[in-house]
Amino acid sequence: MKILVTGGAGFIGSHVVDALVARKHRVTVLDNLSTGKRTNLNPQAGFIKMDVASPLVGSATKRLKPEIIFHFAAQKDPRLSVLDPVADAKTNVIGLLRLVKAGLECRIRKFILASTGGAIYGGANKIPTPETYPAHPLSPYGVSKLASEHYLHSYRHAGGFPSVSLRLANVYGPRQNPKSEAGAIAIWLGRMARGQRPVIFGDGRQTRDFVYIDDVVRAFLSAMSKPATGVINVGTSKETDLNTLCGKVARAFGSTQRPVYAPSKIGEEHRSAVAIRLAREELGWKPTTVLDDGLRRTVRWFHEQHKIKR
Question: What's the pTM?
Fold first, then answer.
């Protein structure tokens, strides 16, 4: 199939592109390389350097005539969304709508959105949180992702535009950028590699649901091949507090640096883990990588990429 992947030079998108190419699909990546890396691009995929919010996205998409669109391109940092909600909405909402309009004209088979769990559920008091829990985003980022889901819902029910939104937990693994504003594991590894202490924002007792990249890729492939539509959580349903996680990362890396604590970030929830019953039922999916194994694989890749001797 002909497939368009926005954000395909980024962390999650590039892994999905690799899996699609390995399955002999004809893949084109659309990415502005603002956070994605050219080195992440699969050489067997086509590439268009373009911002997803550009007015040219529609014509570029229609020239490709994709059958499937995977949409990963996004502004992903809740803190930055608080500082500049207009830029957040431009990328996450306007970018999505440009793709949807083009997708409708191309009569695509399915639109698959990378959404978010914790940022949409906000301070949920039901953990792990199911898809039916009332949305209560605490940041403009969560609001823009929720709006994207609602737009897809409206077009889906208007007819002729099948879509599925995967609400991701905290994804980690190889290729995650240690210089980004999000992705604690990669950021800590980057600091440890420079001999610096890892920084924990808040008291470290806040929890997250950490899911390994290979498991997430399988979920996206299932979302493409299965008839499932609507909103589906993708995670492990398990909470890990940041103090515990930081200790695990340090041990896997071989660092004795203890964390330093900084003020909590604006717009972040205290507890987060997503329920995955629907993913099991609709996608036939479940995570298979336990946290310690995933961390070992991530650290091994990090050492190899940065030529760090253990």
Answer: 0.96
